[in-house]
Design brief:
This protein has about 350 residues and is of the alpha/beta class. The chain folds into 2 domains: about 200 residues, NAD(P)-binding Rossmann-like Domain (Rossmann fold), CATH 3.40.50; about 100 residues, UDP-galactose 4-epimerase, domain 1. The strands form 3 sheets. A 7-stranded parallel beta sheet has the order 3-2-1-4-5-6-10, with helices on both faces. It has a 3-stranded mixed beta sheet with strand order 7-9-11. A two-stranded parallel sheet has the order 8-12. α1 packs across α7. The longest helix has 21 residues. The chain is globular, with a radius of gyration of 19 Å. The two termini are about 35 Å apart. The C terminus is likely disordered. Bound molecules: nicotinamide-adenine-dinucleotide (NAD). Nicotinamide-adenine-dinucleotide binds next to α1, α4, β5 and β7.
Length: about 350
Amino acid sequence: MRILVTGGAGFIGSHYVRSLLEGLYPDCADARVTVVDKLSYAGNRDNLPARHPRLAFVEADICDLPRMLEVLPGHDAVVHFAAESHVDRSVESAAEFVRTNVGGTQTLLDACLETGVERLVHVSTDEVYGSISHGSWTEEWPLAPNSPYAATKAASDLVARSHWRTHGLDLSITRCSNNYGPYQHPEKLIPLFVTRLLEGRQVPLYGDGRNVREWLHVDDHCRAVHLVLTRGRAGEIYNVGGGDERSNVQITEEVLRLCGADWSAVRHVADRKGHDLRYALDDSKIREHLGYAPQVPFASGLADTVTWYRDHPNWWKRLGHEGAAGQDRTGEGTGVSP
Ligand code: NAD
């Protein structure tokens, strides 16, 4: 089997590729993998093995149709992770989000149709649903995205679905909750806080910190994506949740403890514009239909993640991200929430 992974040099995509190459998914233990990634600020070639007999790396933009038509032939399946993924950046400027997330997805889908790719998983997000004060979203819930990031993900999600409905492309969509784990760019909440605390610096907490997210280890997300790739049904959407619900205050509390710091290291800053209060997924469909169950308990997953950042300062210091090393891009309110 030949699998093409877009965005495979990013946080989640690279975890998926490493898992495939390490043989963690027995049904694809021999799969050959092609990563297509334009290596934006969020993409890092070092997240992947420098050399591996079953890995090919192609530096390319998914918006580039001729390149996609060149690269796709011969692949049996595509797992589409590539996206602009940081909400705060989309609040500052949405243009690149529309270009990559909507235009890039549409270009990729058209190229898949033209080259006869047989199977595709489009990796979407729970943020397409908006915010929910109580209860949880099923896949039938109306989409009401609030941030420009979420709006472009909702648009790409619908463009993907339309390629199934209109053209019969065999594709499924996943909508996952917040991920955490190693190799996550330090602009996102957990790695930002961890790297700052490891440097003895303060961390900025948005607003009153009551915003609630469901946190899932990247390993569980990737296992779910692979289940959907190999056993999911065409045209179906699968929520991927089952993580732990935590407010940003609770996350801060746990990260402070694991880094040996206390609340004097926390500075409250103005809230993000349009900050969603709570996300919560009903993921009974993927559990019942595909046998999905998350395996990484939050407490040990978070502790292992902190240890990974402690043990790999060269990985995050080299990124030169302001969250870890210098000033925030646009002030201290930047980059403090996923
Ligand atoms: P990331 O920002 O770490 O990685 C994105 C990757 O895509 C990078 O390697 C980047 O170089 C690449 N890329 C960006 N634009 C590209 C383009 N035009 N052409 C080719 N490559 C391009 O993101 P992530 O956190 O790994 O998220 C991966 C996917 O999962 C995204 O689609 C995101 O919406 C979705 N998702 C993320 C989370 C989360 O908590 N991080 C949760 C649910 C869903």
